[in-house]
Amino acid sequence: MCDVQNTSDRAMQLDDKKERQSILNSGFTTAISNSWLMGNETDRLSLLAIKAKIVDDPLHVFSSWNDSIHFCQWQGVMCGRKHQRVIALDLQSSELVGSISPHLGNLSFLREVQLQNNSFGNEIPPEIEQVPVELGSLSKLETIIIRNNNLTRSISPFANLPSLLILSLANNYFDGNIPDGFGRLKNLQELILGINSLSGTIPPSLFNHSSLTRINSGFNVKCISTPLPITASKQTYWKDHNQIFGSIPPEIVNLVGLQSLLMQVNQLTGTIPIEIGKVQNLHKLILYSNSLSDLSQNQLSGSLPMEVAKLTNLGYLDVSKNLLWGEIPSTLGSCTSLETLRLGNNFFNGTIPSSLSFLRGLSVVPTQGVFSNASKISVVGNRLALVGCVFYLCRFRNRRKDTPSDSSKNSLLRVSYQTLVKATDGFSSFNLIGVGGFGSVYKGVIDGRIVAVKVLNLLRHGASKSFVSECEALRNIRHRNLVKVLTTCSTIDYQGHDFKALIYEFMVNGSLEEWLHPNPNEDLSNEEFRKLNLFQRLNIVIDIVCALNYLHNKGQTSIVHYDLKPSNILLDKDMTGHVGDFGLAKFLADNATHDLSTSETRSIGIRGTIGYTAPEYGMGSEISTYGDIYSFGILVLEMFTGKRPTDEIFKDGLSLHSFVKEALPGSASEISDPILFQTEGDEEEENSIRSEKDCGVLEFDT
């Protein structure tokens, strides 16, 4: 009897313990939930406070900032997937007028602030960096870009932002000293302070950071003077348009990582040390408009030293407008990375060295003698056998037979490797937006325009042929549903290696792949809100049909895309679909397949993407438009089921095609993407289907 009683008591105690644990867990969960809700409400109220500080919004950026939708869907706001907290605020180039609200400092999960190219006035609120870290200030903040505004007063040290990588405050009205607190930003990579009214010196502690790659304090009205610091980790030293005094020390040889030295328009004196020839990684040297006895717009006299040949990574050399005489040294031909060579307005004589013909990075060079196969002559201001000399390099094409017309050349944006490096922040992983079979795609800014830069991985077999294919395919085609190529770049990089890139119009909504299959581990995007409803998907299908109809039926010759898949369908701001990536494209002419990149259509085997490529290609069938139709069909099935053709459920003879076929017509709803019929809002434009007149003929010749 006692045993029974004891067992009963223990059972009651256990039940009581479970109940207490359940209550405790419930309370803990409720506390966490309340904490998240409070955090979300703090973010919402902070954003509204930021909006309240705007006095003029001509582009109606803030029209969506209201309670009709979740704040994570507001224009310019990006939230993390896990907690739905604001992690990025991007209001750049919005023509906003107002001031920056102190409530920006309450967005404790913030990683990125981009407010550049507006008319924000007053000072940067101290709340951005002065809230104690213990209270969860902006300890996660990595990027602050507020250049090109009307901000005034002194710069805050931002010392409480331990994660800060990029700080860009250029082209404002800041005055005072550069804060010593910058020296405590141990992870800082870029500090951009040019075009302000700063004075004093750059804190020496900044140059102890192994992560620091770029400093720009150029063109400050007042005097910023400092000796040239020596640090082996430095890659770019940029202090042009200031009032820097003194000379360049021989210790510059210790800057083994130095890639760029820009100190033009200063008050430097003396000579350029011969040790500069030992800085092997140097690729850009600009020192004009100083009081040096060397380089552009100085009082340089004598001959150009032979030691310049040691600068094998030098990409830019300007010694124009000096008093140089003698012959151009033939050793310049050893500067294999050279892209720009300016020798104009000197007293050089003799002939242009034949060794310069090996500089593949040069693009505008003489057309006579050893340069007979190159583009144009651009040589003035010297007494050379080939009259004049300013080599302004842009791409030396020694295999080129026909010179394009000026009108055709001017129709394309002209870019160099140096331009693309600057546009993408050195091809930073921060700007990496995609990786494909033949290369990587970066977001960049060229002349104020956001672009997509596809850099070919030339070590990958077939990448060069892919570049040729894409150039040929896109050269003469124009359609609203094809990704627009702006220009190309084929040159060499700073190490003398071949470099090829294509520059496209940037598609703000990314690829269809990202909308159909959002990455559950990605914390930097609003994946919960990347939901395509039925009408949006139908419209994208129509966009793809329009593009294929144009490629197959509207040109002088049919073009087969050969790699149709979601990652190659890009979406603009209006969610219009654009077919891109023509790296595997082929012409069909005279009933025969013509590979755009080679005369051998099977030189690198059957290509395309597994699951989307027509199975007939694997059995030796000729390339045809039917292959694109097959890929299109698989793509449509994927769009409406939400399943990839390579999904793990498709095995043992089951494919995406058979999976759908077996379900039709009675069980279509069971295999459809669960979010297919969810709509967000009931706007007529969003829930309407594009008409046939948008692209002409919608039927295929099958």
From TrEMBL:
One of its GO terms (biological process) is response to other organism. ATP binds at K454. It holds the Pfam family LRR_1. GO terms for cellular component: plasma membrane. It comes from Camellia sinensis var. sinensis. InterPro entries: Kinase-like_dom_sf, Leu-rich_rpt, Leu-rich_rpt_typical-subtyp, LRR_dom_sf, LRR_N_plant-typ, Plant_receptor-like_S/T_kinase, Prot_kinase_dom, Protein_kinase_ATP_BS. This is non-specific serine/threonine protein kinase. It is a single-pass membrane protein. Residues 680-702 are annotated as: Disordered. Keywords: ATP-binding, Cell membrane, Glycoprotein, Kinase, Leucine-rich repeat, Membrane, Nucleotide-binding, Phosphoprotein, Receptor, Repeat, Serine/threonine-protein kinase, Signal, Transferase, Transmembrane, Transmembrane helix.
